[in-house]
Amino acid sequence: MIDNPEQDFVLKTVKGRDVHFVRLWFTDVLGGMKSFAVVPGELEHAFADGMGFDGSCIEGFSESQESDMLAFPDPSTFQVLPWRPESNAVARMFCDVKTPDGRPFEGDPRHVLERTVQRAADLGYTFNVGPELEFFYFKDSRGTEVLDRGSYFDLTSLDYASDLRRDTVLTLEMMGIPVEYSHHEFAPSQHEIDLRYADALSMADAVMTYKLVVKEIAMKHGVYASFMPKPLAGESGSGMHVHQSLFDEQGRNAFFDPSDPSGYGLSAVAKRYIAGLLAYAPEFCLVTNQYVNSYKRLASGAEAPTYLSWAKHNRAALVRVPGYRPDSEEACRVELRNPDPAANPYLAFAVMLAAGLKGIEEGLELPPPTETCDLCKLSRSQLRDRGVPTLPETLGEAVELFSRSELMREVLGDHIHGYLVRAKRQEWDEYQRIVTPWELDRCLAVL
């Protein structure tokens, strides 16, 4: 007999909705979705004892001699998948991964975020996030032929994908994920759907669901959706701007101070949090921007930020204080603009929270804002000449900064930190050995 109300709800819903398969979801270290299905008769056992699987098959999990893992479904994440048939329906639950002796598995990204969120809770804070994920629609996965030539907020025949966004938003809402905005982005065939803010763990689950829904709906319409950070040369890349705030135990926004003498409406806590983001962004950049291609989006002269600055009005800054409703406590937040949608959201949210908390604990001083200078038009050498520190220029630089970071090792644990160093050094080494078409076009006929 189940005495857990959430588990009991799952069992009753499975029976009432004719659910025949329940998919247990979790991610590997890089954020790839993993899944296996159980039949309804196994659910009580899964809740009580977990479902065993071979962890050596999962990238970044474990070696074959330490491969036995258990997936424990989180009943609060149960949802029926609306794109599957209503009869013989399919549902999903996210899982926490544990070792056979019942300990949380140190390579489970969801546990890393749970642990970091708990640390914030111990300090009296709830961490809320609201990400803005951009992506592209292409004709298929074999190339980058776009569907339209639209731009920001177009609502014309140029925006061929309006129906795809509509179906995606409706599907997300059927799964209990509220959406705030959806619109065409700057580049051809580029789009954005923004999720309403929630606590970080719920949001990380929602982001993983969002990415899958976007791809499923695209496939249903016969096209391909990509979260690659920079798929088109000469066009804007795709970001995952993360709006974030801390609420205290009384439900008040710890970032808000209407009497802020600077006029930004920010509390001392918020300013130290921003200072933490700026101080540690070079060290956590490997997590928020984890691929070689991520640094094509962060290149000099691009719209994405490359320098460690903050502002209210200057969208070229790394951290921005949105000013849509300056007198609203609920709306007070900061926006981190360098992450991209290929990041693992569990790890990305964990490292930015840890950096902000570090800024609060260390009492870091916030430098003056950068409101007037459009820094994105400056090269990295020009930024250095002005004394403006920057994010890593390449994946190779990012992995070396990350490898030496005591904070990243502390937040992620030795297992994930060590894996990322090895895997990303290997990716960078492989990329450096590739001869690109750009090099051939530029050099072959003249050298």
H/E series, N to C?
A: HEEHEEEEHEHEEEHEEHHEEEHHHHH
Q: Which parts are unreliable, with pLDDT below 50 for 5 consecutive residues or more?
A: none
Number of helices: 12
Largest sheet: 9 strands, mixed
Average pLDDT, all residues: 91
- Our Rg estimate from Cα atoms comes to 22 Å
Q: Which CATH architecture of the largest domain would you pick?
A: 2-Layer Sandwich
How many strand segments? 15
Q: What are the salient characteristics of this protein?
A:
447 residues, six-stranded mixed beta sheet, 15 strands, 18% strand, nine-stranded mixed beta sheet, alpha+beta, 2 domains
Give an overview of the whole structure.
The structure is a single chain. The chain has 447 residues and is of the alpha+beta class. The chain has twelve helices and 15 strands. The strands form two sheets. Strands 7, 8, 9, 10, 11, 12, 13, 14 and 15 form a nine-stranded mixed β-sheet that branches. Strands 1, 2, 3, 4, 5 and 6 form a six-stranded mixed β-sheet that branches. A hairpin with a 5-residue loop joins strand 1 and strand 2 (33-38). Helix 6 packs across helix 10, helix 8 (345-362) packs across helix 11 and helix 10 (395-403) packs antiparallel against helix 11.
